[in-house]
Amino acid sequence: MHSDAFDRYHHHESPLHRLDPRIKVVTVVGFILSNALLPDGAWSAFALTWLFIFLLNALSELGLGYTFRRSFIALPFALAAVTVLFSIPGNALFQFHFMMWDFTVSDAGLLRFVSIVIRSWLSVQAAILLAAVTRFPDLIHAFEHLRVPAILTTIIAFLYRYLFVLTDEVMRLLRARQSRSAAAAGQKSGGGVLWRAKVSGNMAGQLFLRSYERSDRIHNAMLARGYAGHLRTLNPHELHGRDWAYAAVAFLFILAMQFVGRF
Amino acid sequence: MLYFPVEPMHIPNDYLSLAVSLVCWAVSVIVLRTAISRTNKSLGERQVPLMGVMAAFIFAAQMINFPVLGGTSGHLLGGVLAAVMLGPWAGMLAMTAVIAVQGLLFQDGGLIVMGANILNMGLLTCAIGYGLYRAVLGKSPAVKLAVIGFAAWLSVMAGALFVALQIWLSGNAELRIIVPAMLFVHAFIGLGEALITVAAVTFIMRTRPDLLAESPESSRGGRGWIFAGVLTSLVVLLLSPLASTNPDGLERVASDLGLTHTAQPAAFQVIPDYTIPFLGNTPVSTILAGAVGVIVVLAIIFITGRSLQNKKPNS
């Protein structure tokens, strides 16, 4: 299996790793919600939020810039918010002409744009950290405790378990296609777009059949081992005093962010 | 091999307003509750692992790409394929699981907006895909493939339209920019989706026709799905040109319903120029332009389907 690079969990024994997954999930959701509630241009609150992320990074013992380095995946999405620049009325900062449109960037639009990018960036860092310090099965287990229906969490658990296997399968298919697609330098290679699409479709169909047959085998093997409809875990997932203490501190921090952001 | 985001359709956190995100979550939760109870009834919990592996299939299949032009590539979103192969409810659950893992593990799409992402990429695509497919279940393979291809294209357009509307309702874009921009880009992405989906279903038809056989339980509740699929498709087909040509009308409706805070004056001017030139700038012209596009897509898919169908394997 080659696709381990997929897993975002970083094994370590830090206070954050040992924390109950339920507390981690609730804190991160609360943090992201609080972010969404901060008004535009609440710079001091944004700074406090960043400090919170920084402290969590320190607690995770993965390096102070851990989430910062990984958060750049979120930046391309900033493009999606570019429309905000032009859609909010305010004092015009500058205008330009593009194709058949006249664009005016307003100060209010710029403020909104920068705020959205910062908030989104902070939220992404919290989510990155959650995935890095929590084993995925524990994460799924936490969601089950938080009343997400068992059928959904079970599907997600199996999706995660076979993600790596099927990704390897795709890599084999892609490698096979590549190795059969020789191209002489300077000459046209491969068929037209339609032909390429057909090849890709055949690969998807092939992958479907392989997955389907594999799922059949897996299901039979599980029944043979006594599967009765739900997954068991050896991890007791009990809430200890330090979990509650952490939850209380995180809650106070989130309240402080809201307070600073609004007053 | 690192994960790369496939579709420019996953909305990140904070790009939608909290109200819009929560409404989308509510809609998704209601549909998913039905999906869960139906799936529990028809499948039995013992078959849940099977669905998990099929969800992993969708996730993996999204990595299959093919070069199109100038460094861009075609991808699969997989909603219609999932709905056709697994059935509508199971397809929705599989797509939801895929989107949940993409959001939780890879931060591709935020947690608060996950409801919107599930709605746009999972629920809508499966409803359109299965509804239209269900309408031609007894017909010839060529007709089935043409409809599947059209549904795949339309599902991508529907997702794009909903993303655009959600961003607009959040007050983060002007309707007259975001709708045409999203639809224009996704008209091409949808073509890739349609081609791969049709080719994949053709492949399965030839190699394992039993998997596509009409099972007795799928005949029940068929009317509802046809109705839902056709209705959703019509909404998308009618709303798209309307939102592009006459955004003021839609904005008016939205502000009358209290959906947007204030009617914002335009901070820029747009020449509405996405029409058939010689017909002039009328809504009719744009609807015609849309219809021509739809017919061209249908024709391409139909011809592709036929040519794929004609090449029978040498057994």
Overview of the molecule:
The complex is a heterodimer of chains A (263) and B (315). Chain A is mainly alpha-helical and 263 residues long. Chain A has 2 domains: 7-144 and 237-262, no CATH class; 149-180 and 194-224, no CATH class. In chain A, 65% of the residues lie in helices and 5% in strands. Chain A is built from 10 helices and 2 strands, in the order αααααββααααα. The model of chain A has no long low-confidence stretch (mean pLDDT 84). Chain B has a two-stranded antiparallel ribbon with strand order 1-2. Chain B has a single domain, classed as Arp2/3 complex 21 kDa subunit ARPC3, CATH 1.10.1760.20. By secondary structure, chain B is an all-alpha fold. Chain B is globular, with a radius of gyration of 20 Å. Chain B is built from 11 helices and 3 strands. In chain B, helix 1 crosses helix 4 (88-106), helix 1 (18-43) crosses helix 5 and helix 5 packs across helix 9 (222-245). Helices cover 69% and strands 2% of the residues of chain B. Chain B has helices spanning 18-43, 48-61, 79-86, 88-106, 114-135, 141-169, 175-207, 216-219, 222-245, 247-256, 283-310; strands spanning 66-67, 73-74, 269-270. Strand 2 (101-106) of chain A pairs antiparallel with strand 3 of chain B.
Key descriptive features of the protein:
heterodimer, A: 263 residues, mainly alpha, 2 domains, 65% helix, B: 315 residues, two-stranded antiparallel ribbon, 3 strands, disordered N terminus, disordered C terminus
Strand content of chain A: under 5%
The strand order across the widest sheet of chain A is: 1-2
Number-wise, the strands of chain B total 3
Main sheet: strands, sense, barrel of chain A: 2 strands, antiparallel
CATH level 3 topology of chain B? Arp2/3 complex 21 kDa subunit ARPC3
Total number of distinct structural domains of chain A = 2
Work out the helicity level of chain A: 55-70%
The ordered string of helix (H) and strand (E) elements of chain B is HHEEHHHHHHHHEH
Q: What Rg of chain A, in angstroms, do the CA atoms define?
A: 24 Å
Gross morphology of chain B: globular
Look at the helices and sheets of chain B and give the structural class: mainly alpha
Shape of chain A: flat
Largest sheet entry of chain B: 2 strands, antiparallel
What are the segments of chain B in which pLDDT stays under 50 over at least 5 consecutive residues?
1-6, 261-283, 309-315
Residue windows where pLDDT falls under 50 for at least 5 positions of chain A: none
Query: How confident overall, as mean pLDDT of chain A?
Result: 84
Which class do the helix and strand fractions of chain A yield?
mainly alpha
